[in-house]
Specification:
By secondary structure, this protein is α/β, with parallel strands linked by helices. The protein contains 12 helices and 8 strands. The chain is globular and about 60 Å long. Bound molecules: coproporphyrin III and fe (ii) ion (FE2). It is an enzyme of class 4 (lyase).
Length: 361
C-alpha cells in the first residue's frame, strides 16, 4: 500500500440509488419513504416522473461512470486501492457492498457521498444507513466519511465553467439581462435549522457556493448577473413549511419583472439525478417555454476531471489526517473546509436519534 493512502485500503462511493426498470419504481419509492410523512398523491406524482423515463433513474448510470473514472484516475496517479459503490435505497445496497468488501479483505474504507452539503437528508441519513449496513455485516471494514465538499474547488470550478457555458448558449440579444438561478433540493425549514453542527448549514453552504460562482462569473464576463437561490422537489404535507421559492414560481416572478432570460445552475446535485432531468430539464424548462423566457441549464459536475480528481484529493487528505498529519485542505469561498467527523447532534434526525457512523455521537 503506498503511504499516501495508508491507513485506507478502499474507497466506497455512497449514493442514493434509483430504480432501473418500471417494476422497480414503486418498491424504490417505498424504500425511500419508509417511516416518512409523505402524502400518497406525492408518491404517485414522483412515480410518474420516473415512468416518463421508462422507469429508469439516471443516477445509477451516473455512478457507474463516476466509479470507472475514479478508478482510472487512481491508476494514473499510482493509487492502488479498489473503488466500491453502494446505495442507501436501491441495488447495489450498502450491506451487499460491505459484504463484498469484507470478503475481499478490506479493513478500512474512506466513504465519499454523492451529496455535497450538510443536512439530515444529505449527511446524517447516509451515516445512519451506513451504521445499519455495517451492523448487518460481521467483520465489515471500518468506515470513515470524507468531508462535505460543497466548497472544494473540484466541485465549484466545474460549476463555474458550466455556468459560463450556459450563459454563452443564451441568445446574444438577451444574455446581458439574464438572471442566474441557483437550484437545490428543498428541505423542511426545520431540517435546515438543524443542519450542520450549529444549524442553518444547508442554506449557508449553498449561499457560499453561489457567491463564489457569482464572483468568478463576474471576473470572467465583466458583468455581475443578478441571482437567487431557489428550490425544487418539495414533498411532504403542505402544512409543513419547506425552503422556498420553488424554481417554477421564481421563473414566473422573473418574467413578471420583464427579465428575458435565465440560467438554471443545479448546485445542489453532483450529477444529472432525476431532480435535474425531471424537475429542471422537463418541468422548469416547460415553465420557461410557456413564459417565453430564454433558459439554459448548466451542466452538473458529473465526471468533470476536476470532480473526479477531488475524490483522490479528499482520500489523500484524510489519510494524512489519520496518520496524524495536518495536510493542506483545498477550499474556495469564505467557509472553512468542513469537519472530518460530525459533532454530536450535527444534522439531527427530525424523528429522533438513531445510530449513525462517522460522528462523535
Ligand atoms: C437534500 C436532499 C437531497 C440532496 C442530497 C443527496 O443527493 O442525497 C436529495 C437527493 C435525492 N432524492 C432523491 C429521491 C427522492 N427523495 C425523496 C424525498 C426527499 N428528499 C429530501 C431531500 C433530499 N433528497 C427530503 C427532505 C425528502 C422528503 C422525505 C424525507 O424526509 O426524507 C423521494 C420521495 C418522494 C418525494 O417526495 O420526492 C425521492 C424519490 C434522489 C434520487 C434521484 C434519482 O433517482 O435520480 C436523490 C439523489
Ligand atoms: Fe430526495
Amino acid at each position: 500500500m503506498p503511504p499516501g493512502v495508508d491507513p485506507f485500503d478502499a474507497l466506497l462511493l455512497v449514493s442514493f440509488g434509483g430504480p432501473e426498470r418500471p417494476e422497480d419504481v414503486v418498491p424504490f419509492l417505498r424504500n425511500v419513504t419508509a417511516g416518512k410523512d409523505i402524502p400518497d398523491e406525492r408518491l404517485v406524482e414522483v412515480g410518474a416522473h420516473y415512468d416518463l423515463f421508462g422507469g429508469r433513474s439516471p443516477i445509477n448510470d451516473q455512478n457507474r461512470v463516476l466509479v470507472a473514472a475514479v478508478r482510472e484516475d487512481f491508476v494514473s496517479n499510482g493509487i492502488d486501492v479498489p473503488v466500491y459503490w453502494g446505495n442507501r435505497n436501491w441495488d447495489p445496497y450498502l450491506a451487499d457492498t460491505l459484504a463484498k468488501m469484507t470478503a475481499d479483505g478490506v479493513t478500512r474504507a474512506a466513504c465519499l457521498l454523492t451529496s455535497a452539503y450538510s443536512s439530515y437528508s444529505g449527511c446524517r441519513q447516509y451515516r445512519e444507513n451506513l451504521a445499519d449496513a455495517h451492523a448487518s455485516v460481521p467483520g465489515a471494514p471500518r468506515l470513515d466519511r470524507l468531508r462535505a465538499y460543497f466548497n472544494h474547488p473540484g466541485f465549484v470550478e466545474p460549476n463555474v465553467d458550466a455556468t459560463l457555458a450556459a450563459l454563452a448558449a443564451l441568445p446574444d440579444a438577451v444574455r446581458r439581462e439574464a438572471h442566474l438561478v441557483f437550484v437545490t433540493h428543498s428541505i423542511p425549514l426545520g431540517m435546515n435549522a438543524a443542519s450542520g453542527p450549529i444549524g442553518d448549514a444547508y442554506v449557508h453552504q449553498h449561499r457560499s457556493v453561489m457567491d463564489e460562482i457569482n464572483d468568478r462569473v463576474r471576473e470572467e464576463t465583466g458583468h455581475r448577473y443578478p441571482s437567487a437561490l431557489v428550490y425544487c422537489s418539495r414533498s411532504g404535507p403542505p402544512a409543513v413549511p419547506w425552503l422556498e421559492p420553488d424554481v417554477n414560481d421564481h421563473l414566473r416572478a422573473l418574467h413578471a419583472r420583464d427579465v428575458p432570460a435565465a440560467v438554471l445552475i443545479p448546485i445542489g446535485f453532483v450529477s444529472d439525478h432525476m431532480e435535474v432531468v425531471y424537475d429542471l430539464d422537463t418541468e422548469a424548462m416547460a415553465t420557461a417555454r410557456e413564459l417565453g423566457l430564454a433558459c439554459e441549464r448548466a451542466a452538473t459536475a458529473g465526471v468533470d476531471p476536476r470532480f473526479v480528481a477531488m475524490a483522490r484529493d479528499l482520500l489523500l487528505e484524510r489519510a494524512a489526517v489519520e496518520r496524524g498529519a495536518d495536510p493542506p485542505r483545498a477550499v474556495v469561498g469564505t467557509i472553512p473546509p468542513a469537519w472530518d467527523v460530525c459533532a454530536a447532534g450535527c444534522c439531527a434526525n427530525p424523528r429522533g436519534p438513531r445510530p449513525a457512523l462517522c460522528g462523535s455521537d
